[in-house]
Design goal:
four-stranded antiparallel sheet, about 50% helix, seven-stranded mixed sheet, about 575 residues
Length: about 575
């Protein structure tokens, strides 16, 4: 071995020596070319310029070799998982957990974020007490962190990365798309651990998510769509809401049980759907006037099933591609709620099949074809539950209502007699445990009588208590019937009854005869409801008249255009 090394060393020295001899270069290039090279390379400016351009070319392969070797070394001994900020839910959960693992010295330079914003206004009608201020969470502003978890050293690095491709390359061009990619960079969290088992680091991430989920357990996460200038529309978390009890929503008899049973069977039959080759999707339509509990019902179902709610509000700047993307990317374990579809052009019976182009040439309106493809097309999300709400089902395109798109229709109308009684019990049967009961003030004779008889407990006392309780129950039932008799059946909504009790609860509780106070307040309440209905009808008729006028103007314009074209054709024929 030593002889071989000496031979190779001697050979290398020989060649290095020959490279310094001029005769070697004369034999290689010739005398004339060698003299020309000497003249140019003898100039310092030319030599520096050549070195400036040649050096990167020579060093590039070595740099690539070093980078490749380093990457292979780390990939062999280290495992890295990257999480994009676009995965907002997972990204925020992991960021919160990592912040809990860092030392105090890492929090000297921090950034604050509101991680639990107030939920959507549609879900806030049942909040009690004072509204809480937004909660701030602190995160280190440094982008590189190190901590130990179960004896393993974890490296966390947060950097900016551009998306792989820009969606609107054809619209903006490749060069402008590259610029937009740079502007639209998102944070990318890289979590690295020294292990050759990716499953081990993956298990740690799942544990961290589970830990943070347990801290936030008991709340429903609310998602809504957010419009970005460059990325379009996407889902974002807008806050959390305390779980709403399923019994807090009052519907007609059997409606809640029927709906809940249908959902539970649907979730249990995933393999059954797959074996039959059926798409595992379920659509529900809740119709009824405003205030009948459509949104509240969806929230209570989500709370009952431990799911989240993703609210999709159709806006004028959405098109078919946007709707398909949103329905395809609904957040995990979420019920999709599309509100007021009878007010959206794409869902109406008179909506045009072809969308009108915008000024920039793109089609910017919803069409029925695009909506149907989003709901039950090839790209539709498996296992999804879609709830739609509307006020008037007659305004919706019939093709949308067929089974496979809408599998269960439920009308939540005005309150019937059972709902009226249930609303009374909800507000008038509340016993506050924290209330301090007023002690009885006894006279001397009553006190002495009580002291002499308190030591003797007879069956007569128990019978008296039972009779008193029965009498109170009978009185309460009579009060419920009296209230139900003065409220017209199928005239007011549960939301209107709820507002009635909330607005007058203090005066009712302070009155000597609460039920009589309620009955005295009912006529004014019904007059208010009547006025609100008249105003709604007037507003609706005005909107219809405006739409009718627009349709007439449009028809006249089309007829005028046809007449002009016909006149031009006749003139052209005459000229010919």
């Amino acid at each position: 071995m030593s002889e071989l090394i000496s031979v190779w060393g001697e050979l290398i020295l020989t060649w290095l020596w020959r490279l310094t001899e001029e005769t070697f270069w004369v034999q290689l290039f010739g005398d004339r070319l060698l003299q020309l090279l000497k003249r140019y390379f003898g100039n310092d400016v030319v030599l520096c310029g050549m070195l400036f351009y040649i050096t990167p070319m020579i060093t590039a392969p070595f740099n690539s070799l070093i980078a490749t070797s380093t990457t292979r070394f780390y990939s062999y001994w280290y495992t890295t998982i990257k999480i994009s900020q676009k995965e907002s839910e997972v990204y925020n959960i992991l960021q919160s957990f990592i912040a809990t693992q860092l030392d105090e010295r890492d929090f000297r330079n921090v950034e604050a974020k509101v991680m639990d914003k107030s939920a959507d206004e549609d879900f806030n009608e049942d909040r009690e007490g004072q509204q809480q201020a937004p909660k701030l969470e602190l995160f280190p502003s440094d982008k590189s962190h190190t901590f130990y978890y179960k004896g393993y050293k974890i490296w966390v690095n947060i950097g900016k990365e551009a998306p792989d491709s820009f969606e609107n390359v054809d619209t903006y061009g490749s060069q402008l798309s590259d610029v937009l990619n740079m502007v639209n960079q998102v944070n990318m969290m890289s979590i690295t651990m020294k292990t050759r088992q990716t499953s081990l680091l993956h298990g740690f991430l799942e544990e961290w998510i589970q830990i943070q989920h347990q801290k936030r357990y008991g709340k429903t996460t609310i998602y809504k769509t957010s419009n970005s200038r460059y990325c379009g529309t996407s889902w974002v978390q807008v806050g959390t809401k305390v779980l709403r009890h399923f019994d807090s929503v009052f519907l007609k008899k059997g409606q809640k049980e029927r709906l809940l049973n249908d959902i539970q069977l649907f979730r249990q039959r995933e393999k059954w759907y797959a074996n039959l080759g059926l798409p595992h999707r379920r659509g529900f339509l809740l119709s009824g006037p405003p205030g009948t509990g459509k949104t509240s019902l969806v929230q209570s179902i989500a709370s009952k099933l431990n799911m989240n709610v993703a609210i999709l509000s159709i806006t004028s700047n959405m098109d078919d591609e946007t709707i398909q993307y949103l329905l395809r990317t609904v957040p995990f374990n979420s019920i999709l709620l599309i509100e007021d579809i009878d007010h959206c052009d794409g869902f109406k019976t008179k909506s045009k099949e072809k969308a009108a182009p915008k000024e920039n040439g793109n089609y910017g309106q919803l069409t029925m074809t695009g909506i149907l493809n989003a709901l039950d097309g090839v790209t539709a999300q498996e296992g999804s539950m879609v709830f739609m709400s509307c006020n008037n089902m007659d305004e919706i395109e019939p093709a949308l209502l067929r089974p496979g798109r809408i599998d269960l229709k439920m009308e939540l109308g005005y309150a019937d007699r059972d709902q009226i009684k249930a609303m009374y019990h909800r507000f008038m049967d509340q016993n506050d445990e924290d209330d301090v009961k007023t002690p009885m003030v006894l006279t001397s004779s009553q006190s002495s009588t009580l002291s002499t008889s308190s030591t003797v407990v007879t069956d007569d006392d128990d019978d008296d208590d039972d009779d008193m309780k029965k009498q109170q129950d009978d009185t309460q039932l009579e009060d419920v019937d009296r209230f139900a008799n003065v409220i017209p059946v199928n005239y007011v909504t549960p939301a209107e009854l709820q507002n009635f009790f909330i607005s007058h609860l203090d005066s009712i509780q302070a009155h000597v005869d609460p039920i009589q106070c309620i009955i005295d307040l009912v006529p004014a309440f019904l007059e208010t409801v009547k006025a609100d209905r008249a105003h709604a009808i007037q507003h609706r008729d005005a909107g219809k008249d405006e739409d009718k006028a627009k349709d007439e103007d449009k028809t006249k314009d089309e007829e005028r255009t046809k007449d002009e074209e016909k006149t031009k054709d006749e003139e052209k024929d005459d000229t010919t």
